Each structure stands twice: as C-alpha cells, then as structure tokens.
C-alpha cells in the first residue's frame, strides 16, 4: 500500500486495504509503506480550511492498532505529523537510516491530535515526548531508534526488511505492541517537570498558543487513562484548529515555499531562469558581516577566497572564522572540513578565477564603488558580482562595472551564518540568470531567499524606517522606551524597538541620517528643530549619539547597562529626566499612551509602507514581505507577517486608524494611507492570497 500525504482518498485507501488484508486468511501480517520513497508527510494542510471528507484519522489508527495481525510501518523518507501518528498505531516501526520523523503540528498552530500526544509519551517517556511535540523538530532515524520511536533501522530496502520482519513476527502475540495500552511512565518529579516545561514553552512561544496546548495534552497522557487523554487532546485541538494563529502559521508554511517561486516585473521567473553553477566564491571585506558570509559559504562545501586588505583585520578575521567553523562543526558532531575550504588574501587579485563575489566592505558608497570598479577589472568574464549592502543603490554599483547584468544585491542579516533571511536585490539591468544564481546559492547556504527590487532599504529596512520613527514620536508625546518595548514584546517581537536599537547600535542610524543631511550639528547646546523639509522629525536619537550613548557597546543608550557590552537593559533615570527636559524645551505636554496606540502607530505605519512597496512593484506579493519580516525582523510567526496581520485585523480597520492618526499628525507622511490599501478596501478587502490580482490591475493602469 502506497501513499504520499493522507488526503481523503488516501485515508479511504488505507481503511479499505487494511480491512481487506485483515479479513483475508492468506494474509498473515501487513506492511504499510509509502510511495516514491516517502512514508507520509502528514495531513494535506490545504484540506484544513475546507470541508474535510473521507474517513477520519483517529478511528482509522485505532482500527490498525486493534488488528489481530501484526502491522509494520516501513518508514522511508519522512514520517511527519499524521504520518508518524499512523506509524505509532502500527505494532512495529522500521525506518530507513535516511528517514526523518517528527510531529511538526505545533509549527502549524496545532497539536498531534490523532493520538500523537497520547501514544508518544507512553512509548518514549514524558521528557522526550514533550521535546518532540512542543518543538516539532524532525529527528533522524538514528535518534528515533535511540529514543525508542522506531524498533529497527534499515540500511537498504526498508520495505524488504519490513516484509521479512513482518513474516517473522506473524505468530507472535500483539498485546504488548499496542502503545495505547501502555502505562505512561511517570517521572517522580512530575509537577516540577511540567511546570518547567510550561515555563520554557511560554518563554519561547512569545504568545503562541499551540506549544502551551501541547504541554497540556501531554500532561493529560501522564495523568489520565488513554481514552480520557484522547478526549482532552480532541478538546485542545478544537480550540487550536480554528484559531487565527493556526491560519497564520499555515499561511507562513505556504508563503515560505511561494517566495522561492520568484518573478521580476520584466516577466523573468524562477522556472524559466537557469542558475549557473558556483564552485568557487569570494568575500571581500572581513568585518562582522564578511566573516559570517565566509562561514556560511564554506559550510556549503564551496571553495572560498576571503579578501581583506588590512593586514591586522585579516589576521583577526582568520582566527574568528576558524573559531566559528570549529564551533559549528562541534555542534553538529562533525570535523571542521569547511576550515580547509577557505583561503585568505589581502590582495583583491586573488578573486580572479571565482564564479561569484560577495562584497561586504564598510557601508560607504564611495568605497563600494571603488571595489566594484576593481572587481569588474579583475574577475574573469561572467563572474557574478554581489553586494551585501543593506540599503545602498545596487543599480549605481552595477553602473560601475562592465557587465551590470551580472550585478545583484545579496543582503544578509547579522549574524550572517545564523540568520535565515537573504534579500536578493535585482536592478533593472540584473539578468534573470544572476538572480537565479544568487537565489540558488542562498538556498544552498540554508537561507530563505526573497527576490526584491532595488530601492532605498529594499523591503525590510525600508519598512523599518516608519516603524522606528513612530516609536521616537511616541517618546516625544509621553511614552517611555519601557512602555513601547513592552507593547511590542507582548505582541510577540523578541525585542522592542529601543532594546533592539541598543543592541544594534544607535550610531548605525545616526550615520545614515547624517549622510542624508538630517542631523543638525551642535544639537546638545542649541535648540534642535523637529521638522525637516516640512516633515516631522525627532532628533532624540541624534541627541543621544552626540553624548556617546550608542547602546550596549557603550553601556548607555535608551537604557543603561552594568558595563559596556553587557546585555541586560535597565531603566535609566538619566534618560527619563532627559526626556522630560526635552519635552519641556519643545513645549510638548506628555499624555497617557497605551499599548494599543503603540501597536497601531508603529505597526500600521510599517504595514502602510508595505502596501507602498507592493504598489511600487518592489515586492512581488504580500508573501515576500511577510517572509522577510518573519525570518529577518523577529515578526512573530504566529501572526503571519505584517501583511497577513493587516488582513487579520481587517484592512478597513487599518485604513481607518491610519486616517485617524494622519489627521492628528498631518506632518507625518508615513501615516497617510497609501492608495493600494484604499483600493483593496474599496474592492471589499479580499483575502491576502487575492491581493496580487488587485496589484496587477493597479500596475496595468499606471
Ligand atoms: C486534522 C488532521 C491533522 C493531522 C496532523 C498533520 O499531519 S499536520 C501536517 C504535518 N506535516 C507537516 O507539517 C509536513 C510539512 N511538509 C514538510 O515538512 C515538507 O514539505 C516535507 C514533507 C519534509 C518535504 O520537503 P521538501 O523540501 O522535499 O518539499 P517542499 O517542502 O518544498 O514541499 C513540496 C510541495 O509539497 C507541499 N506540501 C508539503 N507538505 C504538505 C502538506 N502537509 N500539505 C500540503 N502540501 C504540502 C509544499 O507546499 C510544496 O508545494 P509546492 O506547490 O511545490 O510549493
């Protein structure tokens, strides 16, 4: 019997075939396997929102477990979610050594509700089951064997091994093989265990409800008889199944896959653009970003040339990169083979024969221009030239080279060997092959690549600007960094805007604002103005920087720290009196600001810019923006990303609140609702997956 995902037809197939096999006296035992080397990836997620037809999973698994002939699961490829629950209903499990098993329902906002929360703890004990169910992590066959999830691991044909095994156990009694009849092994420190698990889950979940429900369900397995535990599992699942969080998480699952199917406004697409193989790559500039990129490249198995012109920096970088590779290999239980993949040089000529270069020098246009001119002269014909700029004009850099079609942005996020997001930035001259190659390389590096157009800040940083601006204005109007951060952290961000600013360094934005001519000199002594070119401007960040308050690295920023480099932010009385004086100097009267206003002002301003980005064609669709925010900016996944969230709040509501705030702050253009948002509301606020139609119509009319 073979199946991929258990849709209605597949479930019906299993029920019918197992029934036939059990009723046939010639059949002594049964082996369940999958098709095309995959046991089962679980339920079809697309079925969830629909009227689910076909036989339900729970009675089907019960019937298999109750069978009077041995049923063996032959697990190849994946046994995930309902697929693993089905295998747990079988009397024996044999997995191929390359198979992966797991209960990833929690990542879809659900719990394993086909008996997974009740059988797994009975089989492998409460602590291990809690780990697998609350994290949703997939385990390799070797770990599954060690945990006791599977009985055997096969190196060659799993089906052959399972058939042989099934015949060998045909006459054996099955009572001891039905997991639902096992007592749940109860640890002596039962209460402490569950309290600890709940605390850990609440801390990591940032407001997600599914992990909490998973702990509650496993607790039921440990405290109630099987059938009562199943009732509890069902009850908890009922709450999760229709929740907005489950919708958001399932949207993220598909959005993550949708962004790999990129398209450009000129019609170039992922499926018609062939990437060129990259065997050897180079990184130019070994500061923090360059080092992380070199590590990520080497870990893919590529040969890497790492160039840093300053001798001292080169020596330091060499040590740091080796350390990162060694630690990475140790964590994965491997030898650091990638160490030998990197060669270092202080001479840019060393990149002459590479297939692709990633420039990661200091964020300065003049410097980057010079590097691109050099690269264009030094590299062999056809080498792709990529820049890791976070905001600078990729087209302008391309224009410095002989072949602008080979230039794209590859915007990594710090630390580059850890963070999953990669913005691949194309300009009007970038060739589809350059985009395809950068996207493919990103995938090889384990990144989630999103192809975006070229504009100041691209997608992520462009949307961050109005968000940060609102946070500054809120301080002027009466809020504190603590209040703003608390509201955003309760929403689900790992860090609020001010704690994040202290971590990344206030000087970063200061340098950008200076470059844009926004910072007035001698602020501390004079009366800084709060308008730039007719727009409201807050000089608060500039004032702190003038005093050397750059955040964690100087021990002072929006908060205070025990010492420079320390990470624990403490409220700073100095800042509070500074803020009061500032308000008094500007005749600003502090008013009470609540969490709702913080969220509406910061998030709707960010979302509004997201609509502008869609209108400008910088992002192909809302999924691209959402994946950028979930993977690069800490947007809570269970809220689906900013554009999905706007849909959940209701586009009409977002529009109404933006109109309200723009009326109150007419000198803040970011609060002026963008025309795409108005148009979507006028078209009846279609669901997020239908926005592209409205955007396409808008573009065709321009
Ligand atoms: C009420 C009953 C509840 C039951 C509980 C469950 O079973 S919930 C579902 C639990 N299962 C999962 O969460 C598995 C999700 N899938 C994966 O982890 C991976 O897709 C995979 C199975 C490991 C395969 O990975 P691979 O990298 O090889 O492929 P893709 O991820 O790119 O997927 C290929 C296409 O298949 C689509 N898809 C995958 N899984 C599902 C699914 N469970 N339901 C619906 N569709 C699924 C995926 O979207 C890809 O589609 P494209 O159109 O090609 O983009």
TrEMBL record:
GO terms for molecular function: (3S)-3-hydroxyacyl-CoA dehydrogenase (NAD+) activity; delta(3)-delta(2)-enoyl-CoA isomerase activity; enoyl-CoA hydratase activity; NAD+ binding. It catalyses: (2E)-hexadecenedioyl-CoA + H2O = (3S)-hydroxyhexadecanedioyl-CoA; (3S)-hydroxyhexadecanedioyl-CoA + NAD(+) = 3-oxohexadecanedioyl-CoA + NADH + H(+); a (3E)-enoyl-CoA = a 4-saturated (2E)-enoyl-CoA; a 4-saturated-(3S)-3-hydroxyacyl-CoA = a (3E)-enoyl-CoA + H2O. Transmembrane segments: none annotated. GO terms for biological process: fatty acid beta-oxidation. Keywords: Fatty acid metabolism, Isomerase, Lipid metabolism, Lyase, Multifunctional enzyme, NAD, Oxidoreductase, Peroxisome. The keyword Lyase applies. Residues 280-454 form the 3-hydroxyacyl-CoA dehydrogenase NAD binding domain. Pathway: Lipid metabolism; fatty acid beta-oxidation. It is found in: Peroxisome. It comes from the Eukaryota. Monomer. In the C-terminal section; belongs to the 3-hydroxyacyl-CoA dehydrogenase family. Belongs to the enoyl-CoA hydratase/isomerase family. This is Peroxisomal bifunctional enzyme. It comes from Seriola lalandi dorsalis. The lineage of its organism: Eukaryota, Metazoa, Chordata, Craniata, Vertebrata.
